[in-house]
Amino acid sequence: MKAKAIIPTLKYKDAKKAIQWLCDVLGFAEHLIVPGEEDQIVHAQLKMGNGMIMLGSIGVENEYSQLIKMPAEIGGFQTQSPYIVLSDEDLLTVYQRVQKKEAKIAMPLRSEDHGGQFFACYDLEGHLWNFGSYDPLE
Question: What pLDDT is attached to residue 62?
Answer without folding.
Answer: 77
